[in-house]
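Lab meeting notes turned into a lecture example. A postdoc, R.K., suggested we walk through two folding results consecutively so the class can see how the record format repeats. The first protein's sequence and structure tokens come next.
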Amino acid sequence: MAITDWPALERPREKLLQLGPTSLSDAELLAIFLRTGIRGKSAVDLARDLLVRCGSLGALLATKRVDLCRLPGLGDAKYSQLQAVLEMARRALAETLRSGDALGSPTAVRDFLRLTLAGREHEVFLAVMLDAQNRVLACDELFRGTLTQTSVYPREVVKRALERNAAAVIFAHNHPSGVAEPSHADQVLTQSLKQALALVEIKVLDHFIVAGSSALSFAERGLL
């Protein structure tokens, strides 16, 4: 049965318009993006198949271009659209962070970092530089490493924070392994950075580890 033959409130687009986007399942949201299905499958059926193949919506969004384009119903056009959606979301969240107190929007900070770091194939270490009112000055990618580790140099971090005239920083890095738990090295590094920045009166407010769809906060874990 075609989606157009479904009851109105079971059709993803009509359901979204009447009940809002949060009322839709991952498959229904993806179906709206896909717009059409393939022979023998509606857009919703295709969306469900894609989510099963990839494991989750987050995993689908993080899929490499070459792999995504091999999936049924997808190709370069859909890949480009997905990347555009993700970049718009990143920029919208960045605007939210720049417009007010970053600590007053912890969910926006977490979501921004997840969108920025999730899906990276190598470890990346970045710093969100904040002014005295905790407004975002910049988000700088400071170091890039291998699949399992990144070399971070406190002296360079301090230098960049001073260049940005930052009063505080939030650090973040990703774990391509998919495990968000902090290693001993992560904890030692965080304390080293905190001590180095304290010498120039710059506070470390948090350190996030992003792995897949998860973002672990050092501050929430009591590790700062």
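The second example is placed directly after the first for contrast:
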Amino acid sequence: MAITDWPEDERPRERLLKQGAAALSDAELLAIFLRVGVKGQSAVDLARTLLNHFGSLTRLFAAGPTEFVAIPGMGNAKYAQLQAVVEMARRALREELATRDLLSTPAAVRDWLRLHIGGLSHEVFVALWLDAQNRLIADEVLFTGTLTQTSVYPREVVKQALARNAAAVVLAHNHPSGVAEPSQADELLTRSLKQALALVDVKLLDHFIVAAGVAPLSFAERGLL
């Protein structure tokens, strides 16, 4: 049954206008983006197909064009539209981080990290460089690794901190396995980086582990810094 044949108070777009976007499920929100379904599937059915295939919105957002267009009803135009929406969300969050104390916006930090690295199939190590007011100066991928490990060199991290004239930093890396728990190696690396950065008066405010489908883990909140 097409969505236009549904009772008006059950249609995603009408519900959004009356109740707000937060009242909708992931599939309903995605259906509004898709606008139409395919033969035998409404837009909501197609949205559920996409979510089942990729496993989460995070992995859907991180999908490459080849994997995305392999889904019946999806094409390059729809992929481009989706990536434009995701990039606008990233930039809006980045604007918030650049104008406010990063420590006062923990939800925005987590959302930004999820959108950037949560759905990647390879491991990356990123830094959010901050000024003396904990506002974002720059973000960058410092190291890229394999599915299981990343080689992180404290000397290179310190070099980049000095190049950015940073007063503080928030570090993060992803776990493609989907488990956002720190390994012993993660804890040892964090302590090593904190000590190295302290030598040049740069504060390590937090280190996050990001995985698809779960909230990023904060070392600071776990008492691991």
